[in-house]
Amino acid sequence: MLLGQRLSQFGWHTTQSERPLATRSEGAQGQLSHRRAIPIAPYTFTYKAFGLTLSSALALPELLPTTGATDVHIYEGAAPPALDSPNLRKIFYQANKNRWLMTAEHIAGARFLVREGREIVVERTSADHDDVLRLFLLGSCMGALLFQRGTVPLHGTAVATKRGAVVIAGGIGAGKSTLALTLHQRGYPILADDISAVNRRTDGTPVIESGFPRLKLWADTCRRFAIETDDLPRIRPELEKFHYPLKKGAFCAEPQPLRAVYLLSPTGSVTRPAFEPLTGVAKMKELQAQLYKIPFREARQTWPRLFADVGALARHTRVCLVERPKNGFLLNELADLIEQDLAQ
């Protein structure tokens, strides 16, 4: 299905602007120059996410429309099959300080090149994977762009409270979105899902930037909360995981000061949820382990300032390890404990 179709069906939005994208080209050393214009579509869609204004030649209906000066350009163009001398080389991506290349032809039908925190170039290799293409563009590519811009992307779901933002972090399958949805049903707006982007104010206070109004939910979570999935789009055709759009009022569109990070850890060693506030080295290491998609050691090799940025985050943020029974989520009890912790 083509980009831009089925948008209103799921409550997603687009807006168009006649302002053309900036034209840039790549010099011999991989730096952006203005010597050779890149052909770009004569119109764009303009969105906001993670504190940025995105001008895009591709419709991205998951995002909220906006206006204003552009921070990031997204367009279709040529992406190389490989980078010259990358610091980081994995099966699906390569990176150096200013360039990040993802080769996802067989999954998303595209290659993606992220440059200098200002551009995402999409080269299609197939026209049959629009939904999956957007999944990678707004996930892995956006995470790389945030790294390049000096923002710390945590792998977690954030909710807004009167005492500040709370990030629910943890490994795959820990239940981040499920616990966040439980808190959301108690009246807390969702601030971001999957990527919680942390910037700092001039006084050092960390803030979570607003993401976009949707949660990604597994089928069992939808059943638990009586959410019908018949009309929800899957994040990938082969997965029982769905995009769940958030209605107006259910999403917080403004950045919030970060109050706490709760690290959700399913374990067989407890029968009831257990909280452990972290300090010192343990706190720093746990935050390092929550970076989005890229292990801290590898990310630090490419973006050295990460060590100082995560250290500043640790100094200003309460971090708690939250162990829960592996068998039996005890969602309401977990939510009660988080509310009690926030009240202190």
Mean pLDDT comes to 87
Number of domains: 2
What's the story with the biggest beta sheet? 10 strands, mixed
Helix content: 10-25%
CATH top level of the largest domain is Alpha Beta
> Which superfamily, in CATH terms, is the homologous superfamily of the largest domain?
P-loop containing nucleotide triphosphate hydrolases
Q: Point out poorly predicted stretches.
A: 1-39
Walk me through the structure:
By secondary structure, the protein is α+β, with helices and mostly antiparallel strands. It folds into two domains: 142 residues, no CATH class; 191 residues, 3-Layer(aba) Sandwich (Rossmann fold). The protein is built from eight helices and 22 strands. Strands 1, 4, 5, 6, 7, 8, 9, 10, 11 and 12 form a ten-stranded mixed sheet that branches. A five-stranded mixed barrel has the order 13-14-20-17-16. A two-stranded antiparallel ribbon has the order 2-3. Helix 5 crosses helix 7. It is globular. The termini are far apart.
